[in-house]
Amino acid sequence: xxxxxxxxxxxxxxxxxxxxxxxxxxxxxxxxxxxxxxxxxxxxxxxxxxxxxxxxxxxxxxxxxxxxxxxxxxxxxxxxxxxxxxxxxxxxxxxxxxxxxxxxxxxxxxxxxxxxxxxxxxxxxxxxxxxxxxxxxxxxxxxxxxxxxxxxxxxxxxxxxxxxxxxxxxxxxxxxxxxxxxxxxxxxxxxxxxxxxxxxxxxxxxx
Length: 207
Prior knowledge:
26% of the residues lie in helices and 29% in strands. The protein folds into 2 domains: 1-30; 34-205, no CATH class. The model is unreliable at 1-28 and 66-73 (pLDDT under 50). Strands 1, 2, 3, 4, 5, 6, 7, 8, 9 and 10 form a 10-stranded mixed β-sheet that branches. It contains 4 helices and 10 strands, in the order H-E-E-E-E-E-H-E-E-H-E-E-H-E.
């Protein structure tokens, strides 16, 4: 009787592990990635930097950046929120908001990978080998720093030992504080809106 009870406990434990593990893996395999075009706009996934949840950013097609925030004729810096682009080096596994070079975000992935290779060649020796990057943004309803004008900062790992998947602002800041990330201020500001998943799914994949 005791052995039968032990077997039942083992089977229950295995079933519990399966329930906890399989949905997580399925979720990881189905993360949205890449830009989608919908009418005159492009929509791409990003992470809400307060919760780590997925949100969607919409920008006008062929939009022109507003320019550096220190130019008085462009945009008030107090009306701007940061948008962080975290670039992952070759060998990093996972599904990123933008995959490949130019990959499924062809309007900016090549430039981001090139910047990484130029700024941190010890970690990103070949731009074309960059597997992808993520976007982190603040969302108003979850308490993040939000504005329709976004100032782009590129975050580069300073060593392969520092590489890990970052989806939260707290993790981003602590990694920067410990020297694991180098921040590059692009000086670029552009208009962007947070939209629904339905808007993203209605678009046509780009790239």
